[in-house]
Amino acid sequence: MAKGSVYLEPRENAKVELTIRRSRFIGHLRVAGSVEEAKKIIREISKEHSNATHNCWAYKVGVDFPQKHYSDGGEPSGTAGKPILGEIERANLTNAVIVVTRYYGGIKLGVKGLIEAYGQTAREAIKAAGVVRKVKGKEIMIEVPYDKQSLIYSQFKSMGIDDSNWEALYGEKVRLYGKIPDFLVEEVEELLSNYVGQGWVFSWSWVDGAY
Question: Which CATH number do you get for residue 146?
Fold first, then answer.
């Protein structure tokens, strides 16, 4: 597989809760497809826990040119947001936002203690969410005759694209929607152009919105 074609993001949203020296730490991890979505998530969680002592956060969004930012949420500089972002980067994740909410329990943790607590909470949230491997690529639509659907599936399977990649809509012809990894784009274009010439494919086009 071509270098740079694979990236990791959280498998699902997750929430964990830890008690560290009487302080309650809640780690919220969400999958975010854009900076705007990440900021919206941060606002929503901060509003939900508006009575908390601190809502600290970090996000990393994007694949080729990821955007990342963090906030200590009122904790001493470098003790909260940066450790949270550090865990996201240590897991090689992108498209992830983590908010760690703290309800102070009466015992001060100190700089080192805060760094460890926020890092641990973020790490546990990542562990709870799991990680999924994604492949950069483009979405495609292919129109084929009914009797050629199996042929198309078989051809793409030989290229490493499983049948489960496709969503089929049935009408006068079969319309297939799927995702093609970046490193196969040129090969697929050549293949489908040949298939159109042979009458095995009616038409095909790239769909707006790479993933």
Answer: 3.30.70.240
